[in-house]
Specification:
single chain, alpha/beta, eleven-stranded mixed sheet, four-stranded mixed sheet
Length: 518
């Protein structure tokens, strides 16, 4: 009998977080913004944008506090907030955007063309991420899980936990910063353990995990789908096993995030011997925003009372330019003003010193009552050459449907807009190791997109003259990422390629085609 597991499961039922259940989203967010502004009112940022004045408006029962906050504080992209403020924190200057000195900076890897971004991680943000992680674990009481699951290990496949000391601060992967501050009670469950997690060589790290895998009893798996799939394949090969449940019979939960899961579902299910619960999270370098609160529900609940204030920008031409850059005068809404089914970009103000900061993701609300969302893509990762308004969400769904049509696995893909005479076409790069005819695949993807997106259907009979599909081995995608120094961890292949990134990718493919793999 798993005594520890039984106690933990009972404890989980008792400790359900109730505040968000029984308070209106607006009230939670109003309180959150007030607390953030109080804390930062004496920072250089708070003085510059007159936080004291904004605080006076919270005494009123209307929305004048938000109106003045928007009026006083401009919208910040990463480049703007970094050049105006965060670079001073990086130099060790105190009280810039948040009280005290910022000792940790997460190097965000993402899918953008830019070099690594330095995202400040404060003590308050570390605690907030830990609290949200625990809240997510509490939701496991809603799943049909045996008590044994609660005393088995949790394998977290993240970037290296090694942190570089740079003068007055440490820099590294967010998972490394968080792992350095794990609660003591959690360390007993945490795998692969500090020694392996510190390794910066991704291939060596995966090999070490594969060798140790049979010594561990893993119940919960956490990581980006592409790398989890590669890891499981290595473990099966090393242990001469048919599926991962021959090695980890108690594996019951897979926690994923950062990228649409649908293209990976088929590939992973072939590696499992038993059904596994998939739980989605929305954790970025800027904070832990949302997690799946219920089994078998493909949406996540926004966390509204843990160090982050959200604003929502309708993802429309009046608010964004053709490159997906937000306009300075963009319309922004609080959570009580949004609508279900409409696409929004997110601005955050946070306990890490981000203020009206655009994180680059787009979402839709599936339930206003429960503050449930789905991620639909990125503000810069969409295609609209001629009004087709194709989102990453549309692309991922079309790939999932097409892979089902041919019963193949397509874990990676990318799309680019290309000229077609004086008009336009879409070029698809599809990663699969299964046999498929590129022309047949093209017809299926095109047909599914016409059903999924009315604008696309209209433009396919007008300015969007054709689509091209190039089928490539999956390894090609990962080799390109490795050539960019973006192998493993939280790194993801970009779904939409534009400009210099597209040229670089095409050049890389040309080198591969010529047999030059250096």
């Amino acid at each position: 009998m798993a005594i520890l597991g039984t106690l933990l499961k009972k404890g989980i039922r008792i400790r359900e977080m109730l505040e968000q259940e029984y308070t209106s989203p607006f009230d939670l967010q109003k309180k959150e913004l007030k607390e953030l502004i109080i804390t930062a009112s004496q920072t250089e940022f708070g003085k510059r944008y007159d936080f004291q004045d904004v605080l006076q408006r919270f005494k009123k029962s209307d929305k004048s506090f938000y109106k003045l906050y928007k009026q006083n504080v401009p919208i910040h992209t990463y480049n703007k907030i970094y050049s105006d403020w965060w670079k001073l924190s990086l130099k060790g200057v105190k009280n810039i955007c948040w009280p005290g000195r910022t000792k940790y900076f997460a190097l965000s890897s993402g899918t953008s063309e830019a070099a690594s971004k330095y995202i400040p991680i404060t003590k308050e943000m570390t605690k907030a991420i830990q609290k949200t992680s625990i809240r997510q674990m509490l939701t496991l009481s809603k799943y049909d899980l045996e008590p044994e699951i609660f005393q088995s290990g949790i394998l977290m496949l993240g970037g290296s936990t090694h942190l570089n000391k740079r003068g007055s601060y440490f820099e590294g992967d967010l998972t490394g910063i968080q792992a350095a501050r794990l609660p003591f009670w959690f360390q007993h469950f945490y795998k692969p353990g500090k020694k392996i997690a510190k390794n910066r060589n991704w291939d060596v790290k995966l090999d070490e995990i594969a060798k140790k895998a049979s010594d561990w009893d893993i119940g919960i798996l956490v990581g980006v789908p592409a790398w989890i799939q590669i890891l499981i394949e290595k473990i099966l090969k090393y242990n001469n096993a048919k599926n991962i449940h021959e090695v980890w019979p108690n594996l019951k939960v897979y926690v994923h995030g950062g990228v649409s899961f649908d293209p990976y579902r088929k590939g992973l299910e072939k590696l499992f011997g038993k059904p596994v619960y998939y739980i989605e999270t929305y954790l970025a370098s800027e904070g832990f925003f949302a997690f799946q609160a219920y089994p078998n529900r493909r949406s996540m609940r926004l966390v509204l009372n843990n160090g982050i204030f959200y604003e929502f920008v309708p993802f429309e031409e009046k608010n964004f330019d053709a490159n997906g850059e937000i306009k300075p005068d963009a319309e922004t809404l609080m959570i009580d003003e949004v609508e279900e089914g409409k696409e929004y970009a997110i601005l955050i103000s946070s306990c890490a010193g981000a203020w009206r900061y655009i994180i680059g993701d787009t979402i839709k609300f599936t339930s206003l009552e429960e503050s449930e969302i789905i991620i639909t893509g990125r503000t810069k990762h969409f295609l609209s050459l001629c009004g087709e308004h194709l989102s990453v969400d549309n692309m991922s769904k079309a790939i999932e449907l097409a892979s089902n049509d041919f019963n193949i696995r397509i874990p990676e893909f990318a799309v680019a807009g290309v000229p077609h005479g004086t008009l336009f076409a879409h070029q698809w790069f599809v990663g699969t190791d299964d046999k498929v005819d590129a022309d047949a695949l093209k017809l299926k993807i095109d047909a599914h997109l016409k059903v999924l997106n009315d604008d696309y259907a209209v433009e396919r009979s007008a300015a969007l003259k054709d689509i091209y599909v190039k089928v490539l081995p999956v390894k090609t995608f990962y080799d390109w990422m490795e050539s960019k120094g973006k192998k493993g961890g939280q790194n993801k292949f970009p779904r939409v390629m534009k400009n210099a990134q597209l040229e670089d990718w095409k050049e890389f493919l040309q080198l591969h085609a010529n047999g030059n793999h250096s």
